[in-house]
Amino acid sequence: MTSTSESGHLSPDEIRERYRIEREKRLRSDGTGQFKTIAGEWADFGRDPFSDPNFTRDAVKEETEVVIVGAGFGGMLAAHHLRKAGITNFRMIDLAGDFGGTWYWNRYPNCACDVESYVYLPLLEETGYMPTEKYVKAYEIFAYCQLLGRTLDLYSKALFQTEVEDMRWDDESQRWHTTTSRGDDLSSKFVIIAGGVLHRPKLPDVDGIRGFKGKMFHTSRWDYGYTGGSPTEKMVNLADKRVGIIGTGATAVQAVPKLAEAAKELYVFQRTPALVGKRNNKPTDPEWFKTLKPGWQAERIVNFTQAITGSQPEVDMVADEWTKLFWTDTRKFPESEEEAAALEQLDFDNVQMIRDHIANIVTDPEIAKKLMPWYSQACKRPCFHDEYLPAFNRSNVHLVDTDGHGINEIGENGPIFDGVEYPVDLLIFASGYEVTSDYHHRLGFDPKGRGGVPLSQAWGTGPSTLQGVLTRGFPNMLMISTVQGAQATNFLHSISTVAEHVGWLVAKAKADGITTMEPIEAAQEEWFNLLLGQVFGIARYNAVCTPGYLNREGEAGDMTTARSMAWMTSVMGFIDHVAAWRARGDLAGLEVHTA
Ligand code: NDP
Predict the structure, then answer these.
(1) Which atom of ligand 1 is nearest to the CA of 252?
(2) Going by CATH, does the domain composed of 12-37+201-279+331-429 fall within 3.40.50.2300?
(3) Are 148 and 75 in contact (CB under 8 A)?
(4) Among 258, 381, 410, 493, which residue has the most ligand 1 atoms within 8 Å of its CB, making it the best to mutate?
(5) Which of 51, 77, 140, 284 is most buried when burial is the number of CB atoms within 10 A of its CB?
(6) pLDDT 10s digits, 524-535
(7) 515, 169 contact by CB (below 8 A)
């Protein structure tokens, strides 16, 4: 492809230098401390605008087999696997008012899944559901979660609008006790914690937020009462409003086009431009869908993961911009200098292709230049959208590029940058989620294990687990999380894998008469060393990345950070590992007790 932007002629040294300069601008001494957590005096930003605030119900006091925390896909799939294993005695708890997790909370306009629906939505063959598009919108996914809730008969198990207040292991009864904000008191043999990954919204820690006189909210708590409209209808109340949005990550990229259509004026406050490629969404062809043979979904899910993690399968089933961009894993640890140079060049070329795309779409060359990313392709989650870039060709859309500095102050009328206040009626925070904060903090409760030891204390110098699922001192506590656990670009691939694994563990305990299971210390260290062995390629890549949540905002990181890492290579390796472990049947690395 010929390069349409002037930057297409830079040498590798010049590109490296440009990346370095852009990174330096964004490195901050406060690193991950640059955000406010939405709790305490900021808790109002986390209030649920979607469910009845006056909802009440009787407290539930019962003994059950399993308590599942989280009613998103992780919790639902864990419940599904318990049911499949004949375990029907379980409870589910969630702060949200319905099933869905991420898809309950994220209702901002245009919200959609950026991974193909045929590989993202779980259990499509079981439900017989045909997604309407290749990339479905959030409201369809939320409705699908409700459909799953009905199909899997989970509604009778769920305690919604309920927060876990305390969860503690009782050595005498060999059971967990969970109490909640609604007075529930649940005793269970197992707990499964599927608390989410990107679920705790954060705000930039800037001066003046409380002094702002207009309306404000975070994208994950969209207030349609103020904006008018709905996820499917135009936000008519914004026709006479000036709107500001802080952040240009994956969320803002989706929301900006609809805001641009609805608002009188839209100000987009940018710190780092997103890497935005083509989307090419299309409706599902029902005739094609009918041709799919049993087993198609599992095959397609694996094929997608292989295609974006460098395995280069014979057929590229999904064949989209993800698979094009990540067909070769440019983050892999190179075996020679030649390979290192080739991988780096490929990454340079891919990002250049994105810059060329921007130059082709955005008509004002100065604005186009400001929207161009100067970092490696996997430093941030890449975005794919066909309406985001054209939005900047509209006369009511104003890009306020802060050249890497970000907004550090908000005045009573709006954000201030470079001494200029930008007056807005509505200020939207598209500032993302906590990813690197302590696990118990993100959960919102601190489980107490044997002897009343809180998880925060047990993991004081960093997490220790076996397979990211079990941790010593917390018998029968099973986690579905990325802390030392599986992760994948298609989150549902990793979540489904771990949900199946925890379901298997509970079923195995039942079948073998096991009362408690927890890892031995040596097995936890062995697991950590296995994770460490995978990290070099990615650590090398991330070390020169522009700051973001994937590299802890560029902080060097301590042992706690290192020990919080996920399985960093392809999730296929994790799947093979746990499958082989299960097939051996000896529960190697676990201390088990039977009745
Ligand atoms: P991100 O953390 O990715 O983005 C936050 C944005 O806020 C960044 O652009 C950041 O800039 C900006 N920001 C932070 N502080 C300031 C400041 N002081 N001034 C100006 N800008 C600031 O959050 P998102 O909600 O966009 O996305 C989070 C994740 O959610 C994604 O990475 C993705 O994994 C997931 N997601 C998935 C989707 C899907 O379709 N599957 C859709 C949407 C989100 P900077 O880049 O400089 O830090």
Answers:
(1) 26
(2) no
(3) no
(4) 381
(5) 77
(6) 999 999 999 988
(7) no
483 residue type, one letter: V
β-strands 164-170, 175-180 pairing? antiparallel
Cα–Cα dist 68/515, whole Å:
18
Contact criterion met (CB below 8 Å) for 202 and 35? yes
- Residue whose tokens read 């929301």: 255
Q: Is the CB of 431 under 6 A from ligand 1?
A: yes
In the prediction, which pLDDT does 2 show? 41
**Domain map of the chain by residue range?**
12-37+201-279+331-429, 62-199+438-513
**Residue 171: how many CB atoms within 10 A of its CB?**
12
pLDDT tens per residue across span 184-210: 999 999 999 999 888 889 999 899 999
Q: Is the pTM of this model over 0.90?
A: yes
> Is the CB of 209 within 6 Å of ligand 1?
no
- Ligand 1 near 433 CB (within 6 A): yes
| Ligand 1 within 6 A of CB of 407 | yes
Least confident residue range of 9-13, 82-86, 96-100, 228-232? 9-13
Using alpha carbons, select from 566, 425, 581, 559 the residue that is nearest to residue 488. Answer: 566
Q: How far apart are CA 582 and CA 270, in angstroms?
A: 48
Q: Which helix (H) or strand (E) holds 68?
A: strand 61-69
Query: What does CATH list as the number for 62-199+438-513?
Result: 3.50.50.60
